[in-house]
Amino acid sequence: MSTNKHFDKICCIILAVMLILTALFINAGKLGVQAVSAAVGYASKLFNTSTVHTIDIVMDDWDSFIENCTDEQYADCTVIIDGEAYRNVAIRAKGNTSLTSVESYGNDRYSFKIEFDHYDNAISYYGLDKLCLNNIIQDNTYMKDYLTYQLMREFGADAPLCSYSYITVNGSDWGLYLAVEGIEDSFLQRSYGNDYGQLYKPDSMSMGGGRGNGREFDMNNVEMPDKTPEPMDRKDMEGSENGGSGMPHDRTMGSSDVSLLYTDDEFDSYSNIFDNAKTDLSDADKTRLIESLKKLNNNEEIENIVDIDEVIRYFVVHNFVLNFDSYTGSMIHNYYLYEEDGQLSMIPWDYNLAFGGFEAQTNATELVNYPIDTPVSGGTIDSRPMLAWIFNNEEYTDLYHQYFDEFIKEYFDSGYFESLTDSAKELISPYVESDPTKFCTYEEFEKGVSALKDFCTLRAESISGQLAGTIPSTSEGQAQDSSALLDADGLTISDMGTMNHMMGGGFPSGDEHADGFLPRGRRGDAVEAFNPQNDFVPQDNAAPSGRPAEPNDSSRPGSFTPPDMQNGSPANNTVSLVLLGVSTSILILGLMTALLFRRRR
Predict the structure, then answer these.
(1) How is the chain split into domains, by residue range?
(2) Tens digits of per-residue pLDDT, 410-455?
(3) pTM, whole model, 2 decimals?
(4) Within the chain, how many helices (H) and strands (E) appear?
(5) For the stretch 464-474, what's the b/e string if a residue is b when 16 or more beta carbons lie within 10 angstroms of its beta carbon?
């Protein structure tokens, strides 16, 4: 009898331990335990930057899909990534002005968005739900997005993963694209854990904010302010108050809510934020965001409503690369706003027009010396409250300068940036050369990369001077002492590609490209009879026509492995499943033991 009682006590102890462990697992986040990301698998797969990956899009009626791309409607396809096939996934064209630009060029090289879980929410690529394939339009360097995302992430700002991928369609060459992690659920889980906050992509609907809204936007029909004054004629800049850059525009085309300006407490006043939410919203979420914007605009409780360290790091990189097609530009878009428990941060997006590629900003000397303490183009610093708080407090301004100094020394003075650029060029050069749909010639690519390196070298030198006080760091100071500016007259900004240069080198739409590509032509006719319902098996060591052949190495990411039609990453949620299994097993064991010895009694 005493033995039975002893075992009863043991069973009770086991059950008590199980209850404690269960409570700990449920409240792990509150106790400071880091959540295990469900998306860890894809980060080391497709987004391994040491290789150019292969993505084949398999679709029965590709030509019809391309002809209707501007409708941004999803179509079913099979996608084969580095030899692994995924059926029943969705694809559509993506972009705002770039979407209509491709059409006006007479080219088929659209950017695409792939949604693995569009038709079946059980499907993912090793945990990745959304994938963007960027066509690298208006970027002769092929590197603006890639380098910016790398620098953002390495310097401590949350940024999407990316890698180069060579695209084929039904086995035929399409071109070299940049594969970018979609900033949606998988990104949020990877960056913030499973218990993440709210995500927004603020944009004015009239400017192409969101799917379908860029279709009617035409840059040629927008009345633009006066262009940049002559290089040494800065009279128009002298009167710039409240941090206005004075170059190249002093008028915005965005709405007050996308500027993150507080107006009132009405939800409708922030429709360009809430209508472009990427997460499900409640009224409480909307109220909390408006309250944070109110405090932000009043410069109150900044330490509570802004992720200070991350946002400053974001703006250091952002203000270095000079992307005016963004929050600091006249159009005020191309950024994500993340909010969690009332605290705000910024996530970078779309840098193909960075490094002076936006509109007519081609004066190299002005761009190289662009003032880091008045970094807004098309307005004042006060009109961008997510930036203004940095300059409204001496402590935060000093931290901004400190981080800028660290950034320049760590990534430019050290030679790291030059090495990163050279490695990327070496990796992608053969693919750029054989890219049948590229927007520039290979010679223009080489010239663009050289100009990019020169620009960044000079930009880093100028910022070092601005931090040291030898070069004015504000537009007003530069207007008063233009002789102190670093001379960059030998640099041609347009060599890197601009939004004013169609087809990179200016090839007329429909005319024959220098590399023999006809922009208006449809590709894939030779595989018209291809049936996507059949297994598409790439041959080992066989490169599509024009694509550089790779060594026969079964371990390389591009080599073929039998398609297993993955419905999710094999590594997804492994830790969570193990913990659940262990907990359940112990609980069942405890209950069975208790029942067994109770019966014996």
Answers:
(1) 2-32+584-600, 40-188+510-574
(2) 999 999 999 999 999 999 999 999 999 999 999 999 999 999 999 9
(3) 0.77
(4) 19, 10
(5) bbbbeeebbbb
